[in-house]
Each structure stands twice: as C-alpha cells, then as structure tokens.
Write a structure and sequence with these properties.
By secondary structure, the chain is α/β, with parallel strands linked by helices. Helix content is 39%, strand content 12%. The chain starts with a helix and ends in a 10-residue tail after the last helix.
C-alpha cells in the first residue's frame, strides 16, 4: 500500500495497513537544535530546505521523512514579491501586515502592534497586505505536481497565514488589548475581523489555485485554548469568530471541492469542536493530551466518526523523556484514536529544543511498529 492510499483511507475513516504518520506540517516541525541532532542520529550530511528563515523551526527535510517512513509531502506558500521587510532603529523588523518582530537568542517575539489604538477609522486607511501578490503562488504548482507524480506520498498544503482572525487580532492590537476589544470595542473588532476574513480568504484562494489538483487538504491554525481552559467563552466565539471561519472554509470548499480542511488548534479547546465541525473542518490537530478536557479516548468516542483526528502525541512530558516513555506514549495515542481509521499520528506540536533527537526517531519507529492494523487498545 502506498502512502497516498494509506492517507486516503484514513481520511475516509477506514483502516489501512497501518496508521499514517506526518511530519513537517504547520504544527509538526523540528526545532533547529533537534533537527540537526536528528541528522546526526541518522547519519545525514548537509541541511535540507530553509523554508522558515529567522525562526526556530527553519528547516524541512524529506530525507528524514523517507528514513522514518513518513507518509507526506507538504507545499508551503511563497513570499510576497511586492513587499520588502524593513528594520527600524530599535531592531524591529516589519512584515507585510505592518507587525514588528524582534528576535532574541531564543525566540522571535512580536514587538510592535500597529493597531493598538482601537480606532474603527484605522481599518479603512490601514496599509493592508496585497492578497493577490503573485509571489505567494510562484513555483508551488510545479512542486506540488512533482510531489504528486514522482512520489507515492500524500501531498498537502500548510497554512497560508500564521493563524486566523483571532491570532492576527492579537498580533495587530496586542493580546491583552484585543481580548479587551472583544468586550469594549465591538465596532472596531467587527470591522477588523471582517477585513481579516476578506484578506485571508483571497490569500487562501490564490494559494490553492495552482496546487488544488494535487493536494489532499489545506491547513489552517487558530489556537483557541490555553493549558487549563479556552481563551474565550463559547458565546464570544460565536459572537465574533464562528461565522468568519465558516466563510473562509466555505469559500475554499466551493472553489476547490476536492480539498479537505485541517485546523490546528492548541490547548483546552474541546468545547469548540462541535461548532468547528459546523464551520466545515474535516481534520483536527493538535489534540494536546495534557490540556484540560482533551482526553484522547473521549475525543475519539465523541468526534472520531465525524472528523479525522491528527497528531495527539504529547510533547510536554513524553517527548522530553526516555525512549520507553515515548514508546508508551505512541502506544497510548494509537490505542486511543486509531481504531476504525480516521487517525494520523504526529506530535501535538513542533518538537522543541528540549526534545532529545533520538526521541524523534523513536516516535516514528514506534508508530510504524504499533500502528499496524488491527491496533491494540492501550492500557497502562
């Protein structure tokens, strides 16, 4: 069975020969330190593709995927041609959204929030990015076709933007100010979310145009949960975010009906899942197992026949631990979520610098070992 066939069976909620495994998606990359450690462990020389320069997860390397029998190739959106980043006298570099970033020795942090003042008139006059910039789609159609025709892997598209309306509201306004705006600045918040929805819809439709014939799904990301609970009430989500999210997903499915929608959402976000299904998601990631209310077996029981469950391997404790702890965690995730199909194995988020490189290899080798159907229910 090929990787593509295996993934398509999982997407159809059917059991294949084994559980598919993913790496290099929007939430399953390797911290640079871990990446180079994995290269050493596998005896690979030189670096792969530098796709995220200036971040802590800069590389994508399908030599690792092939060595670990990972089932995917991913397409990433291109950079805008008509925008050049600038840096101010304080060392803040600005992206096409006008958001300032400052990189220290550990993280790339947002340092300038250009819409911190909630003035509704600013929405109309603000210099928004050009969603039709041709650089975003340059060369990606050829790459997707190459992956489709010359590998047996499933091909998907990673996120076109680093988050959705909830995240960009925080980037533009500041996290605290945006959350205050949800309660105190309704007109500004509505106008901002409407504008973000319009721009993101056009970015995604343009991004997908050259690659649609070759991909299984497109990824979106919106982190609705913290470790212990949701960022907002379900009422507030429905007030501001549910309809805009549904509009984007509906536009994608109308234009490209063969493409499924995958949403990455961290944290304790289980209360939103029925509404996200209403919005049109087909696949849910990250299924963070140590977050409140995110028990893997419960998620499978409640939602496993409706949506595909993706990832769910704990990165907060297990992936930092011993090889035996990683093996046990992989067995747990597969045992909880793989029965009947509809599950794809991956870490619950990017593997951080505190993850021993050998644990990455253990994760995927155990995935291949324990993911053979029929899988066994895991009990501690």
């Amino acid at each position: 069975m090929t990787s593509r066939e295996r993934v398509r069976l999982a997407l159809a909620h059917k059991e294949a020969d084994r559980v598919p495994m993913d790496l290099w998606g929007c939430a399953s990359r390797l911290h640079n330190k871990v990446y180079f450690g994995v290269l050493d462990e596998l005896g690979l020389e030189g670096a792969g593709s530098l796709i995220r320069p200036g971040t802590l997860t800069e590389y994508e390397d399908y030599r690792i995927s092939d060595a670990l029998n990972v089932d995917f190739r991913h397409v990433n959106i291109g950079k805008p041609k008509n925008y050049t980043s600038r840096t101010d006298e304080h060392g803040n570099s600005y992206d096409e959204w006008g958001i300032g970033h400052f990189k220290n020795d550990k993280y790339n942090a947002i340092s300038v929030h250009p819409l911190a003042d909630p003035d509704p008139s600013m929405i109309d006059s603000y210099p928004w990015p050009d969603p039709d910039d041709p650089g975003r789609a340059e060369g990606i159609g050829e790459l997707a076709r190459d992956y489709h025709e010359n590998t047996s892997c499933a091909v998907t598209a990673t996120t076109a933007t680093s988050g959705m309306m909830f995240e960009f509201g925080q980037y533009l306004c500041g996290a605290e100010q945006f959350l205050i705006n949800l309660y105190e600045e309704e007109l500004f918040t509505e106008k901002l979310i409407d504008k973000l929805t319009e721009i993101m819809t056009r970015i995604y439709l343009n991004y997908l145009r050259p690659i649609a014939p070759y991909i299984e799904w497109v990824e979106f990301a919106s982190d609705l949960g913290t470790q212990n609970g949701p960022f907002m009430s379900l009422e507030m989500f429905r007030r501001y975010l549910k309809k805009p999210m549904a509009e984007i997903f509906t536009a994608v499915k109308k234009e490209y009906p063969g493409i499924k929608i995958m949403l990455h959402s961290c944290g304790a976000m289980s209360s939103f899942i029925p509404d996200l299904i209403d919005c049109g998601i087909d696949i849910l990631n990250s299924l963070q197992p140590l977050a409140h209310g995110m028990d893997s077996q419960r998620l499978k029981n409640e939602f496993g026949k409706t949506i595909v469950l993706h990832s769910g391997v704990d990165i907060q404790k297990a992936m930092q631990g011993t090889a035996e702890e990683v093996e046990e965690e992989v067995q747990r995730a597969i045992g909880a979520m793989a029965n009947g199909g509809g599950y794809i194995l991956a870490p619950a988020n990017h593997l951080q610098g505190d993850c021993p490189p050998e644990n990455v290899i253990t994760l995927y080798r155990c995935g291949e070992k324990y993911g053979r159907y029929p899988v066994k229910q895991f009990t501690q």
